[in-house]
């Protein structure tokens, strides 16, 4: 197969997991890494790390993402009542005792607890070496060719799908299985609910105080307290505080970005909105989200957002631990940019 690129971005690892790789750093979750995760299980206690998927509530966090809409499926005549709370003795035959329901959901895949796929953020970059930047995703995959849409029948199966990631979709992570060692850094314990931009110095200071060590292939989780507050707001979040409280990674700190690259983490996960804050305006070409750019575009590190980490962080602190077995596959829903999930930590 022809290479999709002749230039790769500075500091990227394109091609290092194979010319056609679509998994990125998830490749570092090897059988050995799974065993390292399993060895962290001592008590058999599990923590579900998902918010209910109808949280945060409303759309104050992101004005184009909405809570799920659940409906009954309809019958061939589009009548909903024919397949929801259906009493079979009334509608089919008096001899049947059954009552049935079936439903359908419209689900904004990045509304709540989610993975961002490697197709979620690319960049303009001169990958083919013709001197002109073109839009491209991780490992040189292209909009319009590999990531299709919006267009009629993008999936090509008549299903009505108008977008479809032929490559880099989350089904690859689902099929690989996402299970290995998770390591949690408890930012909230040290920084409280202030909107602190966390630099490498702050991060390493907290890691030293809490004896947190991150090794290649680990999935790194950051507890900021944001998702705990989201739950406390009970689906009616404060529209100002939701954007002005709790810590996030300081994407303007180049040393932090270098550390993320050098640490060889396989995934970067936070309980907040986007892991990082937005870049300041700048007349030069730049990325709005440097950590998304580094992780999704350059290094193939999937991002987890809006995970519910509070109870796990509390237990780990009480037990003087930071590591656990993390099981966190996305939905095996082909062609998607993001996926809800129900991650489980086992200690
Ligand atoms: C933002 O929308 C800021 O981040 P994400 O798309 O990763 O949720």
Describe this structure in words.
- The protein is an alpha+beta fold and 347 residues long.
- Helices cover 21% and strands 19% of the residues.
- The protein is built from ten helices and 19 strands.
- The strands form six sheets. It has a nine-stranded mixed beta sheet. It has a two-stranded antiparallel ribbon with strand order 2-5.
- The longest helix has 10 residues.
- The termini are far apart.
- The site of acetylphosphate has 5 residues, from loops.
What's the helix and strand layout?
Blueprint: H1 31-38, E1 46-48, E2 69-72, E3 84-87, H2 88-91, E4 99-101, E5 103-106, E6 114-116, E7 123-125, E8 134-136, E9 147-148, E10 164-165, H3 171-176, E11 179-186, H4 187-191, E12 197-198, H5 200-209, E13 219-223, H6 226-232, H7 241-244, E14 248-249, H8 254-263, E15 267-270, H9 290-299, E16 303-305, H10 310-318, E17 323-327, E18 338-340, E19 344-346
Parallel strand pairs: 11-13, 12-14, 13-15, 15-16
Antiparallel strand pairs: 1-19, 2-5, 3-4, 6-16, 6-18, 7-8, 9-10, 11-17, 17-19
The structure holds acetylphosphate (UVW).
């Amino acid at each position: 197969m022809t290479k999709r690129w002749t230039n790769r971005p500075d500091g990227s690892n394109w091609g290092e997991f194979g010319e056609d790789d679509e998994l990125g750093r998830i490749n570092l979750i090897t059988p050995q890494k799974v065993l390292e995760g399993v060895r962290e299980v001592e008590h058999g206690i599990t923590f579900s790390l998902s918010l209910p998927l109808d949280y945060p509530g409303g759309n104050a966090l992101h004005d184009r993402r909405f809570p799920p809409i659940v409906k009954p499926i309809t019958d061939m005549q589009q009548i909903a009542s024919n397949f929801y709370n259906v009493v079979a003795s009334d509608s089919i035959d008096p001899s049947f005792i059954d009552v049935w329901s079936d439903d359908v959901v419209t689900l904004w895949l990045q509304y709540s607890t989610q993975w961002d796929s490697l197709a979620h953020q690319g960049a303009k970059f001169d990958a083919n070496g013709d001197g002109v930047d073109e839009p491209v995703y991780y490992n040189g995959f292209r909009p319009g060719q590999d990531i299709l849409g919006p267009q009629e029948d993008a999936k090509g199966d008549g299903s009505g799908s108008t977008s479809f990631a032929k490559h880099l979709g989350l089904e690859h992570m689902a099929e690989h299985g996402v299970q290995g060692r998770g390591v949690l850094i408890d930012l909230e314990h040290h920084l409280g609910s202030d909107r602190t931009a966390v630099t490498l110095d702050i991060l390493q200071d907290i890691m030293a105080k809490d004896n947190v060590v991150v090794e290649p292939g680990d999935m790194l989780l950051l507890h900021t307290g944001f998702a705990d507050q989201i739950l406390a707001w009970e689906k009616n979040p404060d529209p100002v505080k939701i954007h002005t409280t709790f810590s996030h990674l300081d994407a303007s700190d180049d040393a932090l970005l270098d550390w993320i690259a050098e640490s060889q983490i396989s995934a970067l996960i936070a309980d907040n909105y986007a892991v990082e804050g937005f870049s300041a305006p700048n007349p030069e070409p730049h990325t709005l989200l440097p950590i998304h750019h580094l992780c999704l575009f350059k290094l193939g590190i999937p991002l987890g957002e809006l995970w519910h980490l509070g109870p796990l962080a509390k237990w780990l602190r009480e037990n003087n631990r930071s590591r656990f077995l993390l099981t966190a596959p996305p939905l095996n829903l082909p062609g998607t940019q993001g996926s809800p999930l129900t991650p489980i930590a086992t200690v």
